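<purpose> Linking amino acid order to shape
<body> The protein record starts here
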Amino acid sequence: MPRCIYILRIYQSFTFHLVWFQGNILVWDYGSLDGRLVDWKKYSYRGVIDTGIWILFICIAFKMPSVIYKTVRKLSIAFILIQLISISFILITMPEIPSFKKYSFDENTKFAFSAKKNVIILIIDAFQTDVFQEIIGEDERYKNIFKGFTYFRNSVSGFRNTLLSVPLILTGQYYDNSIPMQEFMKKAFCSSSIPKFLKDNGFKVDLFPRSYNFIYSNEKIASNMVKKRKLSKDSTKKATYDLYNISMFRYMPHFVKNHVYNGVHNGVTRLKGTDDPNNNFIKKMINSSSADIEKYAFKFYHLDGLHPPFHLNERIEYESLPQNRVGYKRQAKGMLRLAELFLDKLDKLGISDDSMIFIIGDHGLGDVIGINIPENLRAKDIRPIHLGSAIERALPLILIKPFNSKGELRISDAPVCLSDIPKTIASELDLKNDFSGDSMFKVKESDIRERRSLLCNSKDNYSRNDFLPSMKEYVVSGFSWLNESWRLTGRRFSPPTQKWLGPAYFKMLKTDMDINE
C-alpha cells in the first residue's frame, strides 16, 4: 500500500476519534440553545484551545503514522467498550416511559369548530403584557383587532416557564415538588382540569400543545388523543434533520459551531419563510377551517410565538430582526396580525359571537427585552420592577372575549393570574365547578388579592429525578408591574430527593421537550 494512502487512512480514522473526543470530552457550555444568538467573540479562547488540539494531533498523525496506527486500534476497542457500557447503563436506569410518549394528537379536526358554542385558548408563547400595552398605545389600529375583548394588564403567571405554566393554565393547580412531576400531571389533569371537565360536560376537546410533555396524555383528557404516535414522513424527515443539526453542533470544534448553529429552539432548527410554525398555523387555519361540529367544542392552540430568534416581521414575513426588544416588538406585531387573521376567520365562519376566546402568553421574556412603562401609565407613578428577569418573565399577556361580547377593547387593572382561567371558563359557561381561583370578570380593580408566583433556577435544566429544582415563592399583592407589589414569602419548595437521572432520560425526551422552557 502506498505510504500516502496508508497515512490518509490513519488520518481519517484519527479524525473520527478527534470528533468523538470533541463531542464527549471537550464539551463547552454555550448556554441554552433556545434561538438566542451566541456571543462567539466572548468564547474565542475556546476556538484557540480546540484549534490547537486538532492541529497538534493531526500533525502527530502525519509524523508518527505507525505509532498512531497501533494507538488508534486500541482506542477503537476502548471506545466500543465505553459505548457498550454506556448503553447498558442507560437501559438499566431508563425510567418509565412518560405518558406523552405513548400518545399523539390527531390533527384531522384541528380547525373544525362547533356551530353552536366554542371555547378557544390561543397561547402566543412568551408574549409579555407591557409590550402589548406599548403597541396599542402607539397605534390604535391594534386596539381595533380585539373588539369585544378585555385586556387584563395587571396579570401574573404562576411560573416563569412553559413547562409549568401550561398545566397551571389548564388545571389552575401549582406544582410544588411534593410529588414527582409526572404523578402531578396525571393527578391534576385527570381529576380537575378544564379539558376533562369540559369533555365530561359534552364538549369535543381538541388539544394542540407545542410540546407533548406540557400536557398529561390520556383519552379521558382530550377527544383528539390517540395511542401509539407514529410520525408522518415529513415529521420523521424534520426530526432526523434536527437531530443531525444538534449532533453537528456538539461534535464540531468551536470555529465550526457558529456555521452550524442557526437559531436552535426546542432542539429544532427554525426554518425560514413559509416553514415557520406560526406562519403555517394561520395558513392552515384560513384554508381548512369549518364550523360543522354538532357538539360544543374546546380548542387549545399553543404557538411558538415570541421565543428567540425573532424573524417574523409585522406582516408575518421572514426577516432577520434584532435579537432585542426592538426585534421582539416587531415580531409581537406580527403575532397580533396572526391573531387578527384568526379572529377574522372565526367571524367569516359565523361563530365569533358564540365563542369565548383567550389570547394569552404563558410567561414574559423580561431577561431578553426588559420591561417598559408607556407614557399613558407613567401618570399613575407605576415604576418598572427591578427584582430580576425571573419576575419580569412572570408578566403574561391576557386578552379574553366572553360569549357575545362586543364593543371597543376594554382595559382592566383587576388583579388576575393565569391560574384563574379554569374558573373563568366554568363560570362563563355557568357550570358547577370546584376550580380554585376566581373568575377574572368577577374580580374588581379595587380587590386586594395575593397571587402566587413560584420561581426556580432554570440553569438546573430540570434534570432531577421526576422533580424540579428548588422553587422560591413570591406573592403579588398590587399592580404586578410595581416592584413593591412583589414580596418573598420565605417558603421554598425543594425536591425530596437529589437523585439525578443522568443523560438517558433527557435524550429520550429531547425531541418533545424543551428543558429550558
Summary: Residues 99-364+372-509 form a domain with the Alkaline Phosphatase, subunit A fold (CATH 3.40.720.10).
